[in-house]
Amino acid sequence: MGSIAIDMKTLTSRQLAVARAIAATLFEADALHPVPRERLDLVLQDLRAYVARVGLQTRLALGAAFFVLQHAPFLLIGKIGRFTRLSGEARRRYLERLERSRFGIVMVLVKTLLCFVYFEHPDALAGTGYDAQGLLGPAWALGAASPISRLRVLESNPSPSEASASEARPTTVAKGA
Amino acid sequence: MYRAPTPILEGRNHPGPLTAEADVVIVGSGAAGSVAAKILAEAGLSVIVLEEGGNHTPDQYAKYRPTETFRHMYRDAGTTAAIGLGDTPLVSILAGRTVGGSSTLTGGVIFRIPEAVLDGWVKDHGLVDFTPEKLEDAYLSVERETFVETVPEHMRSASTILFGEGARKLGYELKAMRRNTRGCLGSSRCNFGCPNKAKMSVDVTYLATARSYGAQVISDCRVTGLEIEGSRVKGVTGELLDEERRKRGRVRVRAEKVLVAGSALSTPLLLKGAGVGRWTRAVGGNLTLHPGFRVAALFDRDVSAWKGALQSAYSDAFEREGITLNSVFAPINVLAAMLPGVGPGLHAYTSNMRELATFGAMIHDEGGGRVWRLPGGRPVFTYRMCRRDKLRMLKGIRILAETFFAAGAKEVLLPVFGVRPIRSPDELRFLEDERIPARRFECITFHPLGTARMGLDPSTSVVKPDGETHDVEGLYVIDGSVFPSSIGVNSQMPIMAVATRLAWGIRDRWQPRRVAA
Predict the structure, then answer these.
(1) Global pTM?
(2) Which of residues 144-173 of A touch B (CB under 8 A)?
């Protein structure tokens, strides 16, 4: 990921560091399978672009949410220290407890935005079992002006009549060079 | 005369300020604005449509990822919300901000306004021109222009079919929905722009036709003021926006008539800014939302709920209780956000998305919302849910969950923050306790209505039954803001039908004057 210029309309580098730690904890399948670094980079890149378009109200709420997430571990799991300095296990326990607590809305806000961007990564999307045209269709993948456009499409874009027949079969895509 | 559509003038590419003159200027290119533009341009009037959002063609939005659609085509990138006052949830409001407005982003669902609702409009607000009979021609006109068709059964997703089986076991049936589509391929992402150009949203129907009749559409143009001289409107002022939504030039359009169609969220801001209706609290008040929610369920089989029409069936079995059930789906990344857990816990769900089914509901609400205008023009939306509506939500959630269990679900995920997945119908009993704080409900809406209501009394309403404001001559409101009450069904067709009727009135009253001039 390139250097990040200061932009009042989106997340600060501190907030991005918290977001990265949350994403790594949130999407880790298990201790042996951490989220690949490249995928986290894309999550942060897209998250920045996304937050630049949200309204002032949401930006303020997000700022507050990141602050609470970073500084509240002691209140919920009794651990002194910031969220980003906790062990992986403690981070997970903390986020789980926060999600079930009366302050769950804090977690919901951040989790929602992270899920939006994370599950658009082709590998993450494929991991859900999704196999249809709507999100991963050839036209869509080819046209996206984003990292996802690096996908190399293995099937051609069907005509409308062909598309209805092909709707049921999986679309195959693979990463290009 | 019908000719090639005029090109859309993109404000982001226009050098310097812009001044124009027309018979009619329309603020907003959504369901209402586009309808009026077509009707008035067809009648030979010069029409300018000003749209705050960008110009995204069907070819472009067909290829957007959901977050790209959110960023480029939704108001506040889809994060607009009404702050809950009292025992009320935070209600996420999804509204379009693009050429074509929300119509490019809805499921295309078509319902007429229920007769009981229109009866109330006549009895309580004196709107005698809004009976089912008098709206019939408008409905037919909209259905013809937007290619309304019934969703065939084979377009239903496995998720909807399963829910329908559960409903039958519980003694109620699903009915086929009608939508404005042509050649739908069932990609289940209507809310993010149709990938197959099959949704007949107003950008490809009404607005395209209006442009063929010479209407000029200007995108990236935020209207910030009304020019009023004496008691008569003379035009609008505003600003052109660049790609980052920053101001880049002034706009001034002079016109005989100004039609405001910016949606129930934006219209009151413009009116309040100009001091229209300052003697009544009706401007910005009476905001109704149709709070909606969805329940997800896990089955022991492949559901692949993304295969089929996003919205294909509904049930009005609970209409008397103010609850309408609608089939819904959301793209994977949006759906994942409602799944519980962290790390391995979340992964257990996200890796089994194929087994996940969803169904939604919305309630016919009383309307305790308000649009506030802060100094500088920024809006704040608040909503107070009454006890009756909260009970309706609890009941609706329970109905959806019980129906999924009847269909054989092994686990149900409720739209209540902090509640663990439910594994048997017995565990749903906690929903009988109305002390559950409403702020824990996950709530969403596509249908904000009613912030500049129509009526006969200037002290309780903003516009007259013909759409013209009580205060200012030549200034009309023609969008969902004018609805005097919640309607309990998807609002696209009702907004278009009411706009049709109001635009017909403006056209019919105008023509003799033009001839005389």
Answers:
(1) 0.91
(2) 144, 146, 148, 160, 163-164, 167-168
